[in-house]
Amino acid sequence: MTAALPTAAGIGLRAPHLRHVLDTRPAVPWFEIHSENYFADGGPALAALDRVRTDYPVAMHGVGLSLGSADPLDREHLRKLARLAGRIAPALVSEHLCWSSVGCRHYNDLLPLPYTGETLDHVCARVQAVQEALGRTIAVENVSSYYAFPESTLDECEFVAAVAARTGCALLVDVNNIYVNARNHGIDALAYLAAIPPAAVAEIHLAGFDASGPVVIDTHGAPVAPEVWSLYEAAIARFGTVPTLIEWDTDIPAFDVLRREAATAQHVLDHHARIAA
Q1: Which three-class secondary structure state does DSSP give residue 77?
Q2: Is the pLDDT of residue 104 over 80?
Q3: For residues 72 and 26, what is the distance between their CA atoms, to the nearest angstrom?
Q4: ∠90-241-165 over CA atoms, to 5°?
Q5: 24 falls in which pLDDT band (50, 70, 90)?
Q6: Nearest CA-CA partner of 258 in 24, 13, 6
C-alpha cells in the first residue's frame, strides 16, 4: 500500500545510517532514498529497504534518468525504476530537471539545460513518457548550476513552472539550489519562488553548500546555511506546509546531526501551520 508523505521533515536515508535505523526505529516521519542504489535483483540492501518500508513512508529520488539528454530514454533504467516502485510502493518518485549523459557516456554530475522553447518541448515529452511508463505522476527537481547558457530565452523559474503546467508533473523545489543559483547567476531567489505554482509543489529539499571558492557549490556536505533557512521560511510562507527533506551526501555526520537539522525544518513547518490555523 502506498502511504502519502507526511507534511513533516524527513531525512535522506544513506548507507552509514541504515543499521541504526533498523535497530532503533527512530521517530523520523519519512525517509527518501536514491533509487539507483536499490536497482539490484536482491541482496542485503534491498532486504533492508523492505524492512524500513514496513515502518516508514519512503520517497524514491533518482539521479540517473537524464531527463534532458538528447539520447533516447534509457528503457532498462525505466524498467528497474518501475520494478523498485512496484516493490516498495513509494509515496513519491522524483528526478532531476537536468541531463547527465550523452552519446551513451554518463557523467557524475547533474548538468544544466539551456532554457529555450525547444528544450522545453523535449523535456516535457520525456517527462510525459516517464510518467506513462511508471503509471504515475513524478516530481521534477530544479538543480544547482555553475554555468548559464547564453542561448536561454526563459528564466529558470519560468522553465520549471512550464514543465509542471504542460505535463501535470509535480515539483520538488530544492531551496538550497535556488539560493546557490541566485549567488552564482545573480537571479532573484524570492522572484523565483513567486514564479512557482504552489499547487504543484510536492516536496522541498534542504542541504548545505560550500562558498569557499569563486562559485557556490551545492555539496550536500554541510549544515543548512542561515540564508537558506531564511529562504525556506519564505518558501513555506508561499507554498504552505510541504513535506521537507534534509539531504546530506558527503562527509556524512552522525544520525543525530541530521535529526537536529530536520527538527529545525519541523519548527518552521509547525510555526506556519499554527499561523494558517
Answers
A1: helix
A2: no
A3: 42
A4: 70
A5: very high
A6: 13
Per residue, what are the HEC states of 96-108?
Answer: ECCEEEECCEEEE
* pLDDT average, residue stretch 243-261: 98
| pLDDT higher than 90, residue 256 | yes
List the beta strands (DSSP E) in the chain.
9-12, 31-34, 58-61, 92-96, 99-102, 105-111, 139-141, 170-174, 201-206, 209-210, 217-218, 244-246
DSSP calls for 143-196 = ---S---TT--S-HHHHHHHHHHHH--EEEEEHHHHHHHHHHH---HHHHHHHS
Quickly count: other Cβ atoms within 10 Å of residue 30's Cβ: 22
Quote the CA–CA distance of 276 and 163 in Å, as a whole number: 29
- Sign of the CA dihedral running 211, 213, 215, 221: negative
| Topology, domain 9-276 | TIM Barrel (3.20.20)
User: What's the pTM value of the predicted model, to 2 decimals?
Assistant: 0.97
For residues 159 and 187, give the distance between their C-alpha atoms in angstroms, rounded to a whole number: 14
